[in-house]
Design a protein that fits this description.
By secondary structure, the protein is α/β, with parallel strands linked by helices. The protein has helices spanning 10-26, 58-69, 86-89, 102-110, 121-132, 179-183, 239-248, 285-309, 341-346, 413-419, 422-442, 451-458, and strands at 45-54, 74-77, 135-137, 142-148, 151-159, 162-173, 188-190, 211-214, 260-263, 270-273, 317-320, 331-333, 353-358, 364-365, 372-374, 387-390, 402-404. The strands form five sheets. Strands 1, 2, 3, 4, 5, 6 and 17 form a seven-stranded mixed beta sheet that branches. A four-stranded antiparallel beta sheet has the order 9-10-8-11, with no helix packed on it. The protein has a two-stranded antiparallel sheet with strand order 7-12. A hairpin with a 6-residue loop joins strand 14 and strand 15.
Length: 464
């Protein structure tokens, strides 16, 4: 079956959908008799807050927590049924990246550390929000932003009870994909420009299904004998060489050339990062559908290979699959500043920094082949020095009433490959939430916020 999906103008189409949402619920053929004498609860509801945060991952949770701590009425909305973002929805872990931030350190400590507790991390995040005084709404996907000219003034949610309009003085887009900014008409970039070994083909990093296996005998594993990178098999080969040769021999799926095994909270479990789907767009529904199915099909071959080749995995079995595929890269919203690869390599500081000492390799999974395009390749890696993220990277250049946080902030393809990880995303959320509160309380646009006041909060812990 082939679906001919229409192409729509971003803002006009989404605005039309939002305006018609309540009417659609009330106008279904069975509308007159649907309630069977019970009160009719369909129709449009509304609420108003100082700060609205869209997205319940590490960036969004940090933003909502900080906005609420500054005394703003704050609502976080999340499309799925759990807080935690890709850690809970896609089994992405451990939490990677480093920053110089006491706030981040506190959050990571409260959620139990970097080795993710996939079953209960959402409850730890919920406690942090409750303690800060932030409200949150799950199962609340954003249908469209509400705009007044080029200013975002809230969003329309499409929930099981119908449409809910949320008015907000300031909105934070922590959706990962920059969905709110995109729908509001913000300029953005997506995919790669020309690089050291590739053309300007616009490809994004591949998507992957991470999964968990149990039945592992830890004492026999590579992790118990020096670690996966240093372990050598009897023939002298490393694990990466074993998997590379297996790919060349056709033992693994065509796009699987590296298999990463991560320690879990239990010694008999590992989290596996191996599946890879190339050439697809994480903002396209058809591509996402194909990616979900193709990557999940790869799991069988990966597990069979682990049983045959990985020490301690002879009796391993899949014990958890994610709810959604992991998406590494989509839109990067153009901001008042833009982070580049050179900023990372030189470890550039910034007087307008709202994140300091960010550190993680330029980790680019190859979108046109297997393994890495850049990252964890001896002799082929740009060496990242701890770098700052300026406030302007969080402020869209063409849209008001809005801040962005997480991997959708302003930066190049290469820079995003470093700052996309969860701990650095969390730090951008801390900055965005603080700035949103300052703007909301002063009745100003985010671009007018004094960055020194943001720094007072995020670095020095002073009250706003």
């Amino acid at each position: 079956m082939s679906l001919d999906l229409p192409r729509m103008n971003r803002r006009s189409s989404l605005k039309g959908l939002a305006m018609g949402a309540a009417a659609a619920f009330a106008g279904w053929p069975c509308a007159e008799a649907a309630s069977n004498g019970l009160p009719d609860k369909r129709g449009q509801d509304s609420m108003a807050v100082d700060v609205l945060v869209c997205g319940g991952g590490p960036a969004g949770i940090a933003a909502a927590m900080m906005a609420a701590r500054q005394g703003c009425t704050t609502l976080l909305v999340e499309r799925y049924g759990r807080l935690g973002g890709m850690a809970v929805q896609a089994l992405v872990g451990p939490l990677m990246g480093r920053v110089q931030s006491a706030w981040v350190d506190r959050i990571v400590d409260r959620i139990g550390g970097r080795n993710v507790d996939y079953e209960f991390i959402d409850l730890a995040y919920a406690e942090l929000l409750a303690e800060a005084g932030a409200e949150y709404l799950l199962h609340a996907p954003v249908l469209a932003p509400v705009c007044n000219g080029n200013r975002v003034t809230g969003v329309s949610l499409l929930t099981k009870q119908g449409a809910i309009d949320v008015a907000a003085k300031i909105t934070v887009d922590a959706t990962g994909d920059g969905d709110i900014a995109f729908a509001a008409g913000a300029a953005y970039d997506q995919g790669r420009a020309a690089g050291p070994s590739w053309d300007a083909d616009g490809l994004c990093q591949p998507m992957s299904i991470m999964f968990r296996v149990s039945g592992v005998v830890h004492e026999e594993t590579m992790e118990a004998h020096g670690g996966r990178r240093d372990y050598r098999f009897p023939d002298g080969r490393s694990w990466n060489e074993i998997t590379r040769d297996a790919h060349a021999n056709g033992e693994l799926p065509p796009t699987v050339g590296f298999i990463r095994t991560y320690l879990s909270r239990r010694e008999d479990q590992r989290v596996i990062n191996a599946t890879q789907v190339n050439g697809l767009d994480g903002t396209n529904a058809r591509d996402l559908t194909k990616a979900e199915i193709d990557a999940r099909r790869q799991v069988h071959a990966v597990v069979e290979f682990l049983r045959k080749r990985a020490p301690g995995f002879q009796s391993a079995y899949v014990s958890a699959m994610p709810a959604v595929i992991g998406v590494r890269e989509t839109r990067r919203i153009r901001g008042l500043a833009c982070l580049t690869l050179q900023d990372l390599v030189e470890g550039r500081g910034s007087e307008a920094a709202v994140v300091r000492g960010a550190s993680y390799p330029v980790d680019i999974h190859n979108p046109a082949g297997i393994g890495q395009a850049i990252g964890f390749l001896p002799g082929n890696d740009p060496q990242v020095q701890p770098y700052d993220i300026p406030y302007g990277c969080l402020v869209p250049e063409s849209v008001d009433g809005l801040l962005v946080a997480g991997r959708c902030i302003s930066g190049s393809h290469e820079a995003m490959a470093s700052y996309r990880v969860q701990v650095i995303a969390m730090a951008t959320g801390i900055a965005a939430g603080t700035a949103a509160a300052l703007a909301a309380r002063a009745g100003m646009q985010p671009r007018a916020v004094d960055v020194n006041r943001v720094q007072d909060v995020v670095f020095d812990g002073k009250p706003a």
